[in-house]
Write a structure and sequence with these properties.
The structure holds two protein chains of two kinds. Helix content of chain A is 78%, strand content 0%. By secondary structure, chain A is an all-alpha fold. The longest helix of chain A has 39 residues. The longest helix of chain B has 18 residues. Chain B is an alpha+beta fold. In chain B, helix 6 runs parallel beside helix 7, helix 8 packs antiparallel against helix 10 and helix 15 packs antiparallel against helix 16. Classes of the chains: A mainly alpha, B alpha+beta. The interface between A and B is large, with 46 and 50 residues.
Amino acid sequence: MNILMLVVRRLFHAFLLILAVLVLNFLLIHIAPGDPAEVIAGEMGGATEEMLADIRSAYGLDKPVIVQLGTYLGKALQGDLGQSFFYNAPVLDLVLDRVGATILLVLVALLFAIFVGTLLGVIASHKPKGLVSGLVTLISVIGYSAPIFWTGMMLVIIFAWAIPIFPISGMYDITLSDDLLTRSLDIAHHLVLPALTLGIVYLAQYARLSRASMLEILGSDYIRTARAKGASEISVYGHHALRNAILPVVTIAGLQFGAIVSGAVLVETVFSWPGLGTLAFDSILARDYPTVLGILFFSSLLVIVANILTDLVYRLVDPRIRTGG
Amino acid sequence: MKKFGVMALAATLLAGTFASAPLQAEEGKPGGTLVIGTTQKARHLNPAVQSGIATAVPGTQIFATPLRFDENWQAKPYLAESWEIAEDGKSITLNLRKNAKFHDGKPITSEDVAFSLQTVKDNHPFKTMFAPVTAVETPDAHTAILKFAQPHPAAMLAMSGALLPIIPKHVYGDGQDAKSHPANSAPVGSGPFKFVEFKPGQHIILEKNPDYFLEGKPYLDKIIIKNYKDPTSLALATDKGEVTMFPFLASTRDIARLKKNKDIVVTSDGYAAVGPLNWLAFNTNNEYLKHKKVRQAIAYGFDQKFIINALHGGLSKPASGPVAPGSPYYAPDVEKYALDLDKANALLDEAGFKAGDDGTRFTLGLDYIPGSAEMQKSIAEYLKPQLKKIGINVELRASPDFPTWAKRVGGHEFDMTMDIVFNWADPVIGVHRTYICSNIRKGVIWSNTQSYCNEEVDKLLDTAGKELDQAKRIALYQQAQKIIVDEAPQVFINTLPYHTAYNATKLGNPPLTIWGAMSPLDEVYFK
């Protein structure tokens, strides 16, 4: 019951939030100079005034911005995200065609970051002044401070160009046969570098986080008690300490989901990963308002759902938490 | 046509553009998947309602046109097996092949030709292509007669390449707007390849049309057109063999890089019809630029050779007038504006703009199209210190993206801008628009954004557009170009160094006619 109430309340908040996101972004993109009709004309290598007027009226661009916004929100509430100006296809189709690729990339990167990051953090916490700990800190600092696109390009130069073991870009090789096994292996092969790029940034944070919280917990009374009772080192680390040390990791993972999605935009652009990021990039350049808004709608949705899930997971991991008192 | 010899001498750089004899297409063998790489994103695949390279490359594979042209600007039969031009030039009769079918099995008739022409006339941005067409008569299923209000020689080129795709009336004639017709993203045509899949911004897949009306063709089983995010990744993919053909390659660094690969041939053939010009345009409404002498001074004030040799590594070719070199209408003997700072300074003095104490005469803004560093930004950056030498202070203005630039230039809110404009085969299609007075339209990019208006030029272009005698037509265009170059509403810099890179060990009969990759790839084969 409690959980249900929480979810309902959070969903209501989410709805308001998405509405605000849409309104704000709609106004923002309209402030940018440039006109979708001119982009389409540009694609055509020129157009006549009549054609421009035609395009504008076809997409309702000749009406005041407020009216356009009203029309858009009205349709969006009925689940109609409109037609892409640029591709002249339903935005929903374009977005659904791409959202899977983004989710795959973000999830794989996130899981990689959490597992490897936590593992490194735990190893580092074992001998806080040792060589491993120093190395982990060094990797963390570099991983965290290097710009994500630079990391991506470096990985491409090293592992796709100098030592060509991974493909440079894309999600799968279209020339290969499309039976499930071949395609899946091919996607996995293409996924390594982008997921690694996106993962490295966050891995560093998890390593530092779990190292710090492990160190704090390892010094606490109940660990000393466990050791005094003769618990093995493995049990002390795994059973006693890590369970509590993992809590901040879960929190941060949930909070960071939004940041990871925006990081994914950059990574997708570097690797031509056909997700929402590359579509967003192209759509902004084309002033394709409906598509940009559709993508923002979906990414807000992803982040909100991730946050609600985090809350739920947190309640499972830490029984002390009781929302609303 | 005799002018070609002179032209080839005048521009030794044009080596290879004028093959003396038509290339004999080799006998191919069937099979293979051709991967074409591109950085251009197609909005959809129907060239009848959309111009541009991105739609033209797949569009010319899916749809056939009445005519095709060889590498010497000669018309060849395609969907029309023969044609007659009336004595008075006011009609062209097309005799269609009787065995041509659409991909859905329905026969192609003169009705489809009439319908396609009307669709292009109503929806295509190049209004001048078929503006003089008053009717298309269809006396029988395989005869279509185009009627013109006036002689219209440009119709021949306008019936080739991607300009007049024959689209099925039984699909597009359902009353929906052709510009947003759902069939545009999954078209039914009659060309050598059939539509399979279109993933916007990712790839286009086409497969062999087994019922193609030309016996034994096409040779390829499949064509995949793959999108890459930037020319550098595409060049890398070509180098690695992931991509077999890379048309419209224009980055001089990538051209040089791919030339090092011994398996890859990089050729500049196949771009004669596009005629892509790079120029510096003036807003002639500007208080300084309205003076012809100021415009000429700027033309003398910078060095075209430096741009081509230093900035483009010698890979682009000089442009000197409104018609690109390589076109039969190119004017070789116009003022070339070789670098001459003394002359430039003298002209500015004559125009009455004396240098102040700091040596500056006046200030002008300079825009450029974003995202094309070699052809636009670096030239603009060279012009700034260069024009300082003749006392003109240049303020560069970057645009964050294309729409921003288009808004500024289309809206006439600029002093000078770098610009890229295509000839599109016949001057009536791509050249007139930049100069005729009636095409000064605020808010329309690639119209007469210089606001240059000269009645004599108008008259010459109008007469040339209607002239049936090729020699006379060439003379008229040369006369018009002489005046335009002298008046200098813009200064011509170079043609874009478009090249096609392809793996010559694997690929035979690459597309090298005037339309290049914007023509049916029905003779391309894997060795």
